[in-house]
Every structure is written in structure tokens, then in C-alpha cells.
């Protein structure tokens, strides 16, 4: 991955629309609506109370005022010196952090819990979104701005971390680690076994003729037996993101826990007030017709405490105040609603770049911050993308379809099957329908028939016959869809690449094969499209 230099101001954005194919990579980078739950969509539309979501700055002057307010809360450089071991950063990413720390600058953050081999494409699109917004704000405000990726290796959701999805030979392959850690074990403490090697081999096959082998080499070096899921994730992300100027902070590192320790103890001391504030916010969200993104857990604080074996457990509200005097430094961690508040307290974060689920739960995060009496973190929507590679475009063109046609499960397959239906079969089915219609019409009209049976009996028989004809037609269509012909294979290639298992590409498909095939040029194209989105955020012309 080529390293790109930056002046103190961000580079000018690349010309051309982000949604059009770029000749340098032959790939279409499509900006998509972010989507999400009704709560997330309402938040993105700006229709929810300001108490739930702080107003997003609009225009350069407002962003500069917001940035200045954040900067004033941090001693120049001190935050970076305290957290430097957790960044373990080098290259252009280190240079940007150094400039931000030395110049009383700010950071734009995003983050994600570990996923196998880096996880789905949105891990990369979130990181690139943060970089694009950092560039835009640096250019507009004149302040040094560094993008930061928060690697949530303290997360204990192994089901989320153990797997990933690749497209291979027109089929969707799910890769899964075999380990079964004890519940509550953070990913920084879950070692991988020998099964990770054959899983990597499948990933490499999915990459095909990789022009950018450095991406696969980085994954091969990170994902080895004995390495933990969290450590491998951090090592891979640093290899991919640091050359782009994006620093990766390891949330499990002792420096992060030390920096957040006082806030976490404060959250324990004020746990009853936080519980009340969250219950009130949950009630308000429900009264407005929405479902809270994060369900309440009655009687539990937002703070995890490590047990003697390093497993995480949420502290009970009833025990919270009593344990504060004796709790060991480094033994506490935040849950999902407290994490953004803690991050905002240890980093000069001007904005957190959020996915749709995260954006929804920031309606609850603001209640936590208010109860603690600390600044509310500002969330902004990330850029969302679909990557259409040349071979996928050719498959779509062969079928006469576009990307959006595949959003509907089974509809393209059924349409293709209908087009492939032999004329004789189609005509015979139509003839059966016509014959049934004529016969039932005759029964309805004939006086003696009406005298023998009531009309509803005839109508019921007609519906039953039509149902049987439709069932017969569906069986013909199913047989046609199972045929291994050119159209079927082309559709399988397009669907596995764009909507694997019926899920949008970005939310399921692993990013590494894409990066390996197209390299830095693809990343440049993604950054150009993300910059358009970032500029619109700064200008206040869009929220999603």
C-alpha cells in the first residue's frame, strides 16, 4: 500500500462523481443511502429532539467554534503522550497525530469491534469516512485534524468476531473460527487455533489474481495460530490504514483503561442517576414511536469489571458505589453506551463517524453524558458504499439488470426463469387457465347448475383450480432456476458479490479480496467519494 504525503492542509478532493466508474481501477464506487432503523432514519433527518442529538454544526464557522470548544478541554499534546502506547503508530498516521497533538488540534474518530480478517467492507468504509471528514475539517478550519480508528478489542461478542463472508466462484462462503471461549472473554484474550490457516487459504482464493498482494500478506502475518482475535485485528488494520494516515487505537491497551479509569469510577458512583436517566430516555423514545437501539438491563451499570480470569461482567447498580474505593486500576471498561462518552473524555474528538445502529443508540448516549455532567459526543453519519467490479458489471449487463434489481430476493431469478420458460409450456399453462375460466363461467351462467350448487361453491372450486395451476407453474419455474446455464451463473456471480445471502455487500462481504484485486487505486476512489460526503456534512447540505 503506497504511502501518501499530506501537507498541513488536506489534499484537494479528486474530481468526478463518486458514483461513476473510474478508469484507473475499472470499478464503480457507488455512494448509497445509509439506511437503518426508523429511529436512525429520523435522527438522520434531524427530526428528533436536540436533547437526544446535539445539533450538527453547519458551515466552516460553526465547525470551527465546535472544534475550539473541544480543544479547550485538552492540554496540548498531553492526551497523545498518555495514549501513545495504545496507538503504537508509525508513518503518515503518526505524523498526523503528532501535528494534531502539537498544534492543539482535534481528531475525528470511528471504530468497530473485531471481525475475522478485518470484517465486512463497512469497517473500511468507516475508516475512510473518518479520514475524509478529517481532511475536510482540516482544510476548512485550518486546524490539524487526525483520523482515528477505535479498535474495540475489549468487546466480548465472539459470534460477531469469529466469522466473515467471501464470494467465491459465484457462491457465498462463510468462514468461521472454531474456538468456543468462555462467555465474557474479550477478543483481546481469545487465541486462534490452527483452523485459521485453512480459512486464510479460502480468503486468498476469493481474492483471485491479486494485484496488490501486500493486503493478503498483512492478513497472513496477522492471523496466525496463537495470536488473539483482537491482536490480529489491530495488526491487520494498522497495516492497511496507517499508510492512509489513519491511526488505530487498541481499546484493550492498559493506556486506554488508565486514561478512562476516573470516568469509569465516576460512572459507578453515579450509576443510579444514569440508570434513571436511561429509563426516562427509553420511555421518551418509545413514546415517540421508536424502539431503543440498546435495551435497558435493569439493575446493571454501564461499567464492566474484569474478574480474576479476565472475563467481563457488568457491575450491579446495588454494588457500584461500594466497590469504587477498592477497584483495581485497569480492571474497568465501558459498555456500548458509555464507550463514546469515555472516548470523548480521553480524546479531543470533534465528531464520531457512526453507522446506522450506532447513530440510533446515540439517542441514549446523550442521556448518559448528561447524567454524568460531561460533554455529549457528536455523531455524524458515515459514508455508505457499494463496489461494483468489472466482472460483476459484465454479469449485470448480460442479464439486463442493475445493482438495485438485486435488492429484492428471488425476483431476478423468477424473472429470468419466466423468460427462459419454453413457449410450448407457457402456452399450455395459459390454455389450462383459459379452459378453467370458460368452464367456471359456464357453470355460473347455467340455470340448472346454479340450482344444484350455490355460487360460493363454484367460486371456491375456481380458486382451488387456479391455485393448483399456479403451483404447477412455480414448479416449472423452480426447475428452470436450478438449471446451470449462462444466465444462472451470471446471476450467481452478481448476487454473491453485491447481496451475499440477501444482505447488502457492505454489511457482509469481507473487504480484503476487493483491496487485494484493486489496491491503492480503489482506496483512492473510495476516498474521493467519501470526501464528497464529508464536504456535504461540513456544509450542512446532507445528513446521510
Structure description:
The chain has 544 residues and is an alpha/beta fold. The chain is 53% helix and 12% strand. It contains 22 helices and 13 strands. The chain has a 5-stranded parallel beta sheet, sandwiched between helices. Strands 1-2-13 form a 3-stranded antiparallel beta sheet. The protein has a 3-stranded antiparallel beta sheet with strand order 9-8-10. A hairpin with a 4-residue loop joins β1 and β2. The chain is globular and about 95 Å long. It starts with 20 loop residues before the first strand and ends in a 5-residue tail after the last helix.
Fill in the keyword field for this structure:
single chain, 544 residues, alpha/beta, five-stranded parallel β-sheet, 22 helices, 12% strand, disordered N terminus
> Approximately how much helix is present in the residues?
40-55%
- Count of helical regions: 22
Structural classification: alpha/beta
Instruction: Compute the number of strand runs.
Output: 13
Distance between the termini: 29 Å
Shape: globular
Largest sheet composition: 5 strands, parallel
Order of strands in the sheet with the most strands? 7-4-3-11-12
Gyration radius, in Å: 28 Å
Low-confidence stretches: 1-24
What is the averaged pLDDT score?
89
Q: How big a fraction of the residues is strand?
A: 5-15%
Set down the secondary structure blueprint.
Layout: E1 21-22, E2 27-32, H1 38-44, H2 59-71, H3 78-87, H4 91-102, E3 106-112, H5 121-141, E4 145-151, H6 158-161, E5 163-168, E6 171-176, H7 196-207, H8 213-222, H9 229-241, E7 247-250, H10 254-269, H11 271-287, E8 300-306, E9 312-316, H12 317-323, E10 332-334, H13 339-346, E11 349-354, H14 356-372, E12 379-381, E13 384-388, H15 390-399, H16 411-420, H17 423-445, H18 447-452, H19 455-481, H20 486-498, H21 505-508, H22 512-539
Parallel strand pairs: 3-4, 3-11, 4-7, 11-12
Antiparallel strand pairs: 1-2, 2-13, 5-6, 8-9, 8-10
Helix pairs in contact: 1-14, 3-10, 5-22, 7-22, 8-9, 8-22, 10-13, 11-14, 15-20, 16-19, 17-19
Amino acid at each position: 500500500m503506497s504511502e501518501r504525503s499530506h501537507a498541513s492542509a488536506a489534499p484537494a478532493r479528486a474530481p468526478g462523481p463518486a458514483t461513476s466508474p473510474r478508469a484507473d481501477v475499472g470499478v464503480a464506487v457507488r455512494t448509497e443511502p445509509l439506511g437503518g432503523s426508523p429511529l436512525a432514519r429520523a435522527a438522520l433527518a434531524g427530526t428528533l429532539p436536540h436533547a437526544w442529538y446535539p445539533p450538527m454544526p453547519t458551515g466552516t464557522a460553526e465547525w470551527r467554534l465546535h472544534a475550539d470548544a473541544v480543544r479547550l478541554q485538552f492540554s496540548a499534546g498531553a492526551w497523545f503522550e498518555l495514549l501513545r502506547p495504545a496507538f503504537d503508530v508509525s508513518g503518515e498516521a503518526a505524523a498526523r497525530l503528532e501535528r494534531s497533538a502539537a498544534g492543539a488540534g482535534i481528531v475525528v474518530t470511528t471504530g468497530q469491534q473485531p471481525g475475522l480478517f478485518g470484517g465486512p467492507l463497512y469497517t473500511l468504509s468507516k475508516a475512510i469516512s473518518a479520514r475524509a471528514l478529517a481532511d475536510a475539517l482540516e482544510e476548512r478550519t485550518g486546524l490539524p485534524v487526525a483520523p482515528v480508528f477505535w479498535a474495540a478489542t475489549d468487546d466480548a461478542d465472539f459470534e460477531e468476531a469469529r466469522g466473515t463472508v467471501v464470494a467465491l466462484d459465484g457462491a457465498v462462503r462463510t468462514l468461521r473460527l472454531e474456538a468456543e471461549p468462555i462467555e465474557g472473554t474479550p477478543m483481546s484474550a481469545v487465541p486462534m487455533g490452527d483452523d485459521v490457516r485453512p480459512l486464510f487459504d479460502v480468503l486468498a482464493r476469493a481474492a483471485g489474481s491479486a494485484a496488490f498482494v501486500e493486503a493478503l500478506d498483512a492478513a497472513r502475518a496477522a492471523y496466525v495460530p496463537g495470536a488473539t482475535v483482537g491482536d490480529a485485528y489491530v495488526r491487520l488494520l494498522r497495516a492497511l490504514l496507517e499508510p492512509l494516515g489513519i491511526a488505530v487505537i487498541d481499546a484493550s491497551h492498559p493506556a486506554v483503561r488508565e486514561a478512562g479509569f476516573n470516568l469509569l469510577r465516576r460512572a459507578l458512583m453515579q450509576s443510579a442517576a444514569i440508570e434513571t436517566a436511561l429509563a426516562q430516555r427509553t420511555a421518551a423514545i418509545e413514546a415517540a414511536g421508536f424502539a431503543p437501539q440498546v435495551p435497558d438491563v435493569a439493575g446493571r451499570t454501564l461499567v464492566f469489571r474484569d474478574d480474576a480470569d479476565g472475563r467481563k461482567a457488568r457491575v450491579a447498580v446495588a454494588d457500584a458505589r461500594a466497590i469504587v474505593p477498592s477497584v483495581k486500576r485497569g480492571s474497568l471498561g465501558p459498555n456500548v453506551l458509555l464507550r463514546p462518552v469515555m472516548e470523548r473524555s480521553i480524546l479531543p474528538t470533534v465528531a464520531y463517524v457512526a453507522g446506522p445502529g450506532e447513530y440510533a443508540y446515540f439517542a441514549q448516549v446523550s442521556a448518559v453524558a448528561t447524567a454524568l455532567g460531561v460533554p455529549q459526543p457528536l455523531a455524524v453519519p458515515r459514508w455508505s458504499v457499494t463496489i461494483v467490479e468489472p466482472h460483476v458489471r459484465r454479469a449485470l449487463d448480460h442479464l439486463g439488470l442493475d445493482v438495485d434489481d438485486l435488492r429484492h430476493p428471488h425476483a431476478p431469478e423468477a424473472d429470468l426463469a419466466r423468460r427462459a420458460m419454453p413457449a410450448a409450456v407457457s402456452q399450455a399453462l395459459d390454455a389450462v387457465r383459459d379452459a378453467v375460466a370458460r368452464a367456471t363461467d359456464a357453470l355460473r351462467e347455467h340455470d340448472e347448475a346454479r340450482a344444484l350448487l350455490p355460487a360460493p361453491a363454484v367460486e371456491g372450486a375456481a380458486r382451488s383450480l387456479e391455485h393448483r395451476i399456479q403451483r404447477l407453474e412455480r414448479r416449472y419455474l423452480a426447475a428452470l432456476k436450478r438449471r446451470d446455464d449462462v444466465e444462472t451463473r451470471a446471476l450467481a456471480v452478481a448476487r454473491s458479490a453485491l447481496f451475499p445471502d440477501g444482505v447488502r455487500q457492505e454489511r457482509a462481504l469481507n473487504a480484503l479480496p476487493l483491496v487485494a484485486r484493486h489496491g491503492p487505486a480503489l482506496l483512492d476512489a473510495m476516498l474521493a467519494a467519501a470526501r464528497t460526503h464529508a464536504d456535504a456534512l461540513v456544509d450542512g447540505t446532507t445528513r446521510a
